[in-house]
User: Fold this.
Amino acid sequence: MIGSAVPRKEDAALLTGRGTFVDDIHRPGLLHMVYVHSTEAHALVTGIDTEEARSLPGVLGVWTARDFADLPPRPSVPGLERGYLAGDKVHYVGEPVAVVVAADRYTAADAARAVRVAYEPLPVMATVADALAPGAVPIFAPLPGNLALEQQVTPDDVTADLAAAPHRLRARLVNQRCAGTPIEPYGVLADWTGAGPTVWATVQAPHRVRAEIAERFGLARHLVRVIAPDVGGAFGVKSSFMPELFLAPELSRRLGRPVKYVETRGEHMVHTYHGRDQIQDVEVGFDAEGRILAMDVTITVNIGGVPDPVGIGLATLTSYMLGGCYRIPKIAARYRSVVTNTTPTASYRGAGRPEASFLIERVVDLVARELGEDPADVRKVNLIQPEEMPYQTPFEGIVYDEADYPAALDLLLGELDYAALRAEQARRLADPAAPLLGVGLSTFVEMGGFGPTPLFEQFGYLGGWESANVRMQPDGSVIVLVGTAPHGQGHQTALAQIVADQLNVPFDAISVLYGDTAVVQEGTGTMGSRGMPVAGNAVRQAAVEVAAKARTIAAHMLEAEADDVVPVGDGFQIKGVPEATVTMAEVAVRAFKPHLLPEGTALGLEHTAYYEPKNLSYPSGAHGCVVEIDRDTGRVTVLRYVCVDDCGTVINPLTARGQIHGGVAQGIAQALYEKVAFDPGGRPLAASLEDYMVPGPLDLPSYETHHIETKSSFNPLGAKGLGEAGATAAPQAVVNAVVDALAHLGVRDVEMPCTPERVWKVMHDAR
Amino acid sequence: MIPAGFSYVRAGSVEEALDELSRHGDAARLLAGGHSLLPAMKLRRAEPGVLIDIGRLGELSYVRADGDRIAVGALTTHRILERDPVVAEGAPLLAAAARRIGDQQVRNRGTIGGSLAHADPAADLAAAVLALDGVLVARGPSGVREIPAREFFTGRHRNALAAGELLTEIRLPAAAGLSQAFEKFSRRALDWAVVGVAAQARPGGGTAIALIGMGPTPVRATAVEEALAAGVPAAEAARLAARGCEPPDNAVASAAYRAHLAEVLVARALAAL
Ligand SMILES: Cc1cc2nc3c(=O)[nH]c(=O)nc-3n(C[C@H](O)[C@H](O)[C@H](O)COP(=O)(O)OP(=O)(O)OC[C@H]3O[C@@H](n4cnc5c(N)ncnc54)[C@H](O)[C@@H]3O)c2cc1C
Assistant:
């Protein structure tokens, strides 16, 4: 089954509207929680008048920070503890200031509007430049200034190497802030019955959420149940510990009734954390052929008004991946995480790695441009060769697994018909009536398969392993419990394919369950492209054990040695004796008959496996983009988008393609459309989908996808992960194409998003 | 995303709608396709106390050829305008504009009366009706009156309807056989215009050009029209597109870019005529 493009098990329910999302869940006596959000970017809260709100019929109460003073703070960076609601001070527009609970959502919304918050404005610092300016007042009280973290990632000093390099260039690159905008916004329903709460939540790691809730309330974990039902997209933004995860259970406990919170789209745009938002200062030294000799990078990250424990350190991952798929002997990297009066930033699809890939791929293009070389050739000179794998990067512990980067680039150039594109580009350049043509390349590598426990512990997880329980039912059908919590990835399908191969049972006879801490053994969750490389291996390992036991039982039934029994058709036979067979269903029933089992055999046919990855995996590939630019309006149209991906073993080409499509769509969105912008006063300029430019199907090309399958030796399945590859590869493929189309004007860079107006202005200014 | 409380009445006829309007006065808003009003209510930019639903008044959904005019009922949906043979024959500019509105769900619900009454500075149909020199028919407590499109749009989201008045019909001089062009520049394929241009060749010669996204209301590009009438070549005349306009300068687009777009789009529209 591995390698077959079977349609997704998930789709029948989802496509017929029979999915169950948090907002579909109802409990008797349900109450609704709504926030009062800050309207100010930076201000002292001098008073909160809740009188009128409380007096509205149907309102059960209004609570402010003071009312939750006894609750231990949210998961935070030690020393930078954050509460649930803003206290004496607000740090960004959208920060929750108070919470209202009412009998229905309409009343709750009316009451939230009736709460009057008095503010005394403070100077607003909406950019890192403002926040770091001399004399800037500290935004987040536990910190003496706005520099929350300054990290020297490598001890290397490359000043001498840069000075010695035949060529040098500098660049400042901007990786703008994006919003996750899953179709389903954040939602929580908490029902505290008896000794503890049951919490339905749109999250990516239910067991971690359970642990955090249990800790806040001083409960043993068995008393807390967390369920992630169908989750309508997450993209990392549902891995942050939003206050509602704790406030809903707490208010349910206080009120003795279930409490639901579902974010509106407007709230999503300012309240749920954003991603990216880096300014990257690079200096690179290279030789006459474009060989990169040394690189010095300083990254400045805008982490928003209240430091998130993941967001504050995400640029560590950016730093680790700065070398891309290139043999760069020396990299000096450091980053600064800066507090500003904006919504906090944390994980968003790729979480730190797309920023790195963007940087190095833009740098390679700049080097090519500087030397007058073709960007494809400069890539070839620098690519790490297959025989150098596994490759130790300049960063300790960052070792790339097997891949053939040059082969991916060659396949891409062939599929693009690169030479013909260059000829067409020249033809159009000479014809003032023809739109400009640009070709952009992105040879990328990123991290997947998060991650060995020592790494994942740093993000607050119990471990970096994943767990699976494979259990055969007495009729031979199979239930798989897995510790991931997918939200669109298709784990029901891909994991069933893995089990089908190991157990030799039909795909349709396998169900995969997840997302409920009362059903699934301890698990880690879905993020960091870890589904197949980690959970896939856990499932595989559990299935291997079950298969071995089934074979032992079959051998007993056939009165043969286990070694002489082989799987055939729907069961087993004695090797070379076609008439000596038992079916899997017969074996399954036998597993529950103690008196008919071999001495000492445990009852049942199931196994729980925990798979700990030895290392991260490194999905890679080469993407190419062809754009056309309207010379009059500056509009960029993507004519072609070609992907070559190496995610190791492809479990299901159909779902693999889906992951690529979605990721590339988000990458193109970042390159051409999306930006979470604020005015100098910290007011969000993209607080709705009317203003935040999520592209639609007509704005995106149809993708051409290809795969190279270099199995990773780091795990038995050979899988590397794929969920974030598209979003990692695409932005710079597009931007490189845009800059390529404008190169004849002397244009070196176009900041993302390359909107028509921005491109028009760049063309206009260049003339 | 959660509107304030309101009450709801459904009008069974135009008379009933007018009665309800006069009964509730300022507190009331008419509800047609709901595709501008309901989003505004959900964002609490509008908080009407009463919604008078005229959405099911079949009597106001029609397209009729009426001699040298075409009469369009105010509740005719964008989708009907896109496909109606009378519109295709006599006012293809209207069909071209309708086709570019939002997505099909929006076009299935949104109505021409709602779009014009809402008076969004970037409404596609407004450009077409203005270029066609349409006349809007209003019915109110004191009877029926006609308002030329040029006088209808009085400001951003403001129109010339008096309290208690309801738009019943849009009358367009038939433009069969005359060329026309609709150019719309939007940030996404399915999106509001940043700038849009409707151009219509006139029966007696000359060209009418209307712009959207170039000021608080849709406007006629008078400078271009006059230059063309004076025999200035189209490409040159197009450079006057933004003259007299006060395009908004905001997060959607700068005033300078809008002015540039107006020139480009007018040139394209004129080339297509
Ligand atoms: C997602 C989306 C995308 C859109 N994209 C575009 C686009 O690209 N281009 C574009 O032009 N429009 C666009 N629209 C707006 C759409 O065309 C609306 O349908 C139109 O603006 C309003 O028409 P309606 O019938 O829905 O009016 P409603 O929303 O019901 O009413 C709008 C206003 O007009 C008043 N009104 C309605 N009918 C009458 C009447 N007969 N007499 C007096 N007053 C009346 C109402 O009281 C209200 O104030 C979009 C809307 C949405 C939701």
